[in-house]
Write the structure tokens for this entry.
Amino acid sequence: MGRYMVKRVLMSIPLLLVISFLTFVLINLSPLEPAEVVLQSQGVPKITEELLEQTKEELGLDKPFFIRYIHWLIDCIRLDFGESFVTGKPVWSLIGPAFLNTFKLTMVSSVIIILLSIGLGIICALKEGKFIDHSVRGISFFLTSMPPYLLASLMIWYFSVQLDLLPTSGMTSYQSYILPVTVITISYAGIYFRVVRSSMLTNLNEEYVLFGRASGLPERLITMHVLRNSLQVAVSVFCMAIPIILGSTVVIENVFAWPGLGSLSVRAILSRDFPVIQAYVLLLAAAFVVFNTISDMINAAMNPKLRNDL
Amino acid sequence: MIHLLEVHQLKISEASTGKVIVHDGSFQLKQGSCLAIVGESGSGKSVTCRAIMRLNKPWLRQTGRILFKGENINALPEKEMRKRRGKNLCMILQNGMGAFDPSSVIGVHLKETLSEHFGWSNHEIAEKMKKAMESVMLKNPSEVLNKYPHQLSGGMLQRIMIALALVLEPDLIIADEPTTALDTISQYEVLEQLIQLRERLGVAMIFVSHDLGVVKRVADDVLVMKAGKIVERGEMQTIFLAPRHPYTKYLVSTKLALSNHFRRLMEENSVAES
Ligand SMILES: Nc1ncnc2c1ncn2[C@@H]1O[C@H](COP(=O)(O)OP(=O)(O)OP(=O)(O)O)[C@@H](O)[C@H]1O
Ligand SMILES: [Mg+2]
């Protein structure tokens, strides 16, 4: 088991390297000249060829592509993502706090989504085809198909403006969490509880359930076995849900003015702040790799077959 | 002669569409005897077996009377029925690999079953299972108990089910194609163990198979099913020598060749063993 863990962690290192390289290539494929962007944002009135060359040199942009990548990579490992073209502040001082805010929002939402999905998934699977199964699926279908920004706007209008119960925006107290978390939960719980439900149903149709029942085991015990096998599938889906939500908070954060990665990245893209965009993409990609690794490890701990194969 | 099991007009249909899967089937099983159910794929053998256990899917409806030791178990409350499953009525399935929870070691299922029915301690269970497993020719029983299903062969898993039945000492064993998924050698071994199981416990058995050659070895009576109907029934020898229904004739003629092959194999095996 320990050997598998070490192996799995080592396996993610080349993956991270490939991702960092692709990030770097993609950003550098952009038709815009970074030096020009810097000068523009500094409000230089007339950009001369000379000035451009000088800025390039300052930014190290005159060096060959691969050298630049290596330098950037080494800096990234030291959490030094360079300086923002626009504000001149270190990128980490912008992205760090924003990431923390988004991470808090994501984790609170994810925990609620996971608990809700497991609960609803179990109930619906055990009551397959009954009234409760149909109503939960119907309601969730309706809610999931609503666009999040519409849902968010409606909720702000009703709970914050009409009833004046909750803050409209920002991140001031625990109350600020309620609306964004609700919107995110509604958008995702409907998808993930279906995963739990269908995985439960698949398992309920397995022979071992028949044999368990034929041996006279109480339903309670059989459900435990089914649950354990179903959650194995669900765990990896849930682990991947966290980075997905992390990356998809852009809309929610902009509606609720949440001071997180979503808001920051939109601003960075609009002002072509390359170092910030680069760091954002890299951070999200790293989050995917990390959670993917965690999910594999949990799966290995739960599934004896996987554990032995590797 | 009192019958252990009397099935009267068992009809199984789909609740929503009313489509009949098994038509008014009636048959009896004497104490300690073995009834084989043969028939082509989809003829309703498995559905009939599960109907006796009352383990068909909820969307299938079954009517009729199933008298087990004189009691209509088709009308029993689920809770009472559950107590009889395993304890009085045992099932042995075709696919051993699927029959155990893939994420638990084999011992877990056995422990849960035995402590449910007898309330034995883990130690007692381990002792009894080990003895039973040795008697079905499973080596290193304590190791096997700590193995996951995917680490064992189909034949071993089948013999573990038989060992469990040995400990449970039921009145009736329903074996739904217990040897179909196995290679010829394991098929022979499992069949031998089933025959010995009957001898040891004097237990009655319903034995489902496609293969008349195998059936001939174990069964006293035969039931031939086709498209949900019982088309022929009788004693093993009679059916074999003088099949009446055209479908039975067809089965006997096609399976004769195979059964010869099987007998040869078994003879070779017993020569090799002695
Ligand atoms: N869960 C189910 N729901 C609906 N119909 C079913 C179900 N199980 C079986 N049937 C139907 O019942 C009929 C008999 O199936 P059954 O599994 O009993 O056949 P069988 O004789 O055991 O075949 P085989 O030899 O392939 O195992 C089939 O036509 C099948 O379509
Ligand atoms: Mg069958």
Remarks:
- The interface with chain A takes residues 50, 53, 55, 82-87, 89-91, 93, 95, 98-104, 109, 112-113, 116-117, 148, 150-151, 161, 164 of chain B (CB under 8 Å).
- The longest helix of chain B spans residues 246-273.
- Residues B 14, 21, 39, 41-47, 57, 60, 210 surround adenosine-5'-triphosphate (ligand 1) (CB under 6 Å).
- Chain B has one domain: 3-273.
